[in-house]
């Protein structure tokens, strides 16, 4: 083999190895800083972003960016100006989809699709939220379109509030779906207590970055932070990119 070619290949291999070692070192520095900021937190998913020396850091269903030395945090979205693609939103969809897969539907109130299930939406909902009640009226149309609706509790007023107590009562009802229907349509809730998932749902909502209700998460990971009518949701859910 040509000696010059051998040298070039060796140089390239050394450059690749050096770059790989640098990435490993950067990831370690970032994780160390995260451990200082969030003690006992689970290891983050860290990978290179499209910007040199800036890393994409996934924390549950949230994404931040950090410099390779772990000293700087960038809280925002990366957008490719040539293609107009929101790269951060694409990454968030993937992380939310992964986190959805970790949730157990057995703790949710589920309204099954009529006929073959085509899509699923998970809704963080508050019984005292007017727009949550408005969305609840759309469930029959969604179910008829083959969309399963899964409820998780997110009483915005917090633990111990009236909204929280209502959520606990609904989840503790013998027929929780029926109790939810009554609560959403008439406002009446029969007070009950039991071992329930409401507090855990609220923690999981924080993990997804939920700040208001209703908050709709598609099975693809796409999130709609607010009310949308059934016809709009069906249109979005039947679009391949959603």
UniProtKB/TrEMBL annotation:
Residues 1-25 form the signal peptide. GO terms for cellular component: periplasmic space. It comes from the Bacteria. Keywords: Disulfide bond, Periplasm, Redox-active center, Signal. It holds the Pfam family DsbC_N. It is found in: Periplasm. Residues 113-237 form the Thioredoxin-like fold domain. Transmembrane segments: none annotated. This is Thiol:disulfide interchange protein. The lineage of its organism: Bacteria, Pseudomonadati, Pseudomonadota, Gammaproteobacteria, Thiotrichales.
